[in-house]
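Appendix B. Extra example for self-study. Work through it before the problem class; the solution is given directly after the inputs so you can check yourself.
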Amino acid sequence: MNKWENNKAWFLVLPVFVIVAFSAIIPLMTVVNYSVQDIFGPGQRFFVGVEWFREVLLDERLHDALFKQLSFSTLVLLIEMPLGIGIGLMMPKKGWTSSACLVILALPLLIPWNVIGTIWIIFTRPDIGLFGAFINATGIPFDHTASGVDAWITLMLMEVWHWTPLVALLAYAGLRAIPEAFYQAAKIDGASSWAIFKYIQLPKLRGVMTIALLLRFMDSFLIYAEPFVLTGGGPGNSTTFLSIYLVKIAVGQFDLGPAAAFSLIYFLIVLLFCWLFYNALQAAGTGDKS
Amino acid sequence: MTIKKRHVLLVFYLFLLFLPIYWMLNMSLRYNADIMSNFQIIPTNITFDNYAKIFGDPSWYSGYINSIIYVTINTVISLLTALPAAYAFSRYHFIGDSQIFFWLLTNRMAPPAVFLLPFFQLYSTFNLIDTHIAVALSHCLFNVPLAVWILEGFMSGVPREIDETAFIDGYSFPRFFIRVFIPLIRAGIGVTAFFCFMFSWVELLLARTLTTTAAKPIAATMTRTVSATGLDWGLLAAAGILTIVPGALVIYFVRNHLAKGFAMGRV
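Solution. Structure tokens for the complete assembly:
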């Protein structure tokens, strides 16, 4: 659709610009300010240039945390995206069952993030948790507070449990937008359900799935509250993701300079990935932009 | 036959989805000693003590009221500011439009943990610490861009001829927008409100940092269950269950809007 050329439209965007800039630009500038200074206390700060950036980039533990974070996000996305699309395909299209599915699916999304952690502590503890007790009863020892592998499994399960519904809801929304005529045409051509999925549903889902992928990537890459409540980064350092490590530096050790430099780098990493995803997905479907 | 198999799978998935929530509900209805000593899938010795404790103590239930207040303020601000902006993005070309649009989205990508201290300093400067409006404003950082994004999708689905016809008929812009355009995208507004409510309700880090007592959210109050004798599991579970209730009510009331909004296409 061709849009009207009109710079007065800026007046319509202005409220949004002001309200977001208030909460975004001033704090961001503060962080930039911290990142180039060594701060001992009020009035005692020294300009140190890029020293913190150099220190942070050479930090072994940061590389380790980044690697864990990337593995976590990748694994979670690999499970959530196909599963979510599958659930979206299985959902009934009309009637009260469709509403009921929507309500149940949306439930995990509306639970505060630290309560999610609490639910999973209660659910997976070997002594009082249904899941933990069940796994231990089958003979496999399972304790997320003692074993790093178990902590990872618990976090992944929690993340998949928590966020697959979002992907499913978006996939469902995308599927509902496909006109019935497409399916009728496919039926006349005698297309198999796999062909319908591959040539009709999947291409039409690209738009919403871009949104789902971007949202899921951002949130899983920035995950903080749930692992903080569930494992606190432990046992040892096995679930110390980037954000947990960052808060350890910023709040635990009160090293504002390195923490600020670190967070700017963090921000840039997320930005870079989102930009790459966005362009890749746009390029994959040039031609029939819906 | 295939339809049946897919329904069984779906029901099984929904069952798994509900299981952890059921377990918390189970815990919330039992005494602490009972939780630690007996393993029961269906509780036999049911008690409502944990809930009574929460409803009997203002420092507990005021947390819920605070959360609901700032979430409502945030949803209203997000919608009011995002509506005209989304219209501008969906209808007009103007200098810097795509740049501004992407910049808005980048605000969802900043690690919130980092911005806690700057946020605290900023809001102390304006004397806003421990007010509902502070939390509502800070949540606008991620909710307003999301609202613009979603609404823009719905508005782009409305043919532009409707705008043109209305202007030819002599509607002024504000009158057209409120009387004609907004009713057309009602379902989209419902979906947007749902997402704003959701992301503001579940966010804790900023809400906790910007409040001390007067506007403290319920999720932060919950950390108090760690007492000298260890965790009070029953109380913790009851508080957790109560945090789900407002969300569940909201979905229940918007469920038809949600289904309709989703049917309209892009979210």
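Self-check: The longest strand of chain A covers residues 37-41. If your reasoning did not lead you there, revisit section 3.
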